[in-house]
Amino acid sequence: MTRGWNSVLLEGGGGLAGAFFRLGMVDEIEFFIAPKLIGGKGPSPLSGLRINKMAEAIPLAIEEVSLDTGDLRVRARVHRTTQAGD
C-alpha cells in the first residue's frame, strides 16, 4: 500500500525504535542530550538490535547540532552499510 508520505515522526521507547531500525525504515534521527549524568542498568535507546561492539555500531552523519532550552539537539542521517543487528 502506498501512502505518498515523505516523512513520519516515530516517537517512543527503545523497542519501537529498535523495530524500525531492524526493518531498515530509519534514514534520519533526532535526539537530545541533557547535561546530566546517571548510572545503572537503564534501557537502551535501540532495544533488540544486539549491537555490543563499536565495529557493529550504526554510523551516523551529523547534519545539525543546536542548543534547545539547555539540552543539545542532534539531527543526523543514518548510513546503511549492513542491516542493523545482522
Automatic annotation (TrEMBL):
One of its GO terms (molecular function) is 5-amino-6-(5-phosphoribosylamino)uracil reductase activity. Gene3D superfamilies: Dihydrofolate Reductase, subunit A. It comes from bioreactor metagenome. GO terms for biological process: riboflavin biosynthetic process. It holds the Pfam family RibD_C. Residues 2-60 form the Bacterial bifunctional deaminase-reductase C-terminal domain. The lineage of its organism: unclassified sequences, metagenomes, ecological metagenomes. InterPro entries: DHFR-like_dom_sf, RibDG_C. This is Bacterial bifunctional deaminase-reductase C-terminal domain-containing protein.
